[in-house]
Amino acid sequence: MRNKEIKDYIKSKGVPMWRVAERLGIADSSFSRMLRYEITEDKKAEIKRIADELSTE
Predict the structure, then answer these.
(1) Closest CA to 9 of 36, 40, 42, 46
(2) Which of 4, 18, 20, 31 is the most buried (most CB within 10 A)?
(3) What is the pLDDT of residue 1?
(4) Residue 55 scores a pLDDT above 90
(5) Is the dihedral of CA 57, 55, 28, 46 positive or negative?
(6) What is the percent of the chain with per-residue pLDDT over 90, rounded to a whole number?
(7) pLDDT in tens, 25-34
(8) What is the DSSP string of the chain?
């Protein structure tokens, strides 16, 4: 499964995927489509940072 690490990371933080998408400035459907394909390490790091921030709010 592509980007399983990212999906699992977001889930482990207890953050809904739509909130990560919102913080990225894209629709949740666009975020889901983006995760269908392997994303860059830079984008993965950005998503993890956002998930960390949202989990502490």
Answers:
(1) 46
(2) 20
(3) 80
(4) yes
(5) positive
(6) 95
(7) 999 999 999 9
(8) -TTHHHHHHHHHTT--HHHHHHHHTS-HHHHHHHTTSPPPHHHHHHHHHHHHHHHT-
Q: Token match 């666009």: residue?
A: 30
Asked whether 51 and 10 are in contact (CB, 8 A), the reply is yes
How far separated are the first and last CA of the chain, in Å rounded? 29
Q: How far apart are CA 11 and CA 13, in angstroms?
A: 5
DSSP state at residue 12: H
Per the rule left: phi > 0, alpha: psi between -120 and 50, beta: everything else, 53 is alpha
Given the structure tokens 């999906």, which residue do they identify? Answer: 7
Q: What is the rounded distance in angstroms from the CA atom of residue 42 to the CA atom of residue 57?
A: 23
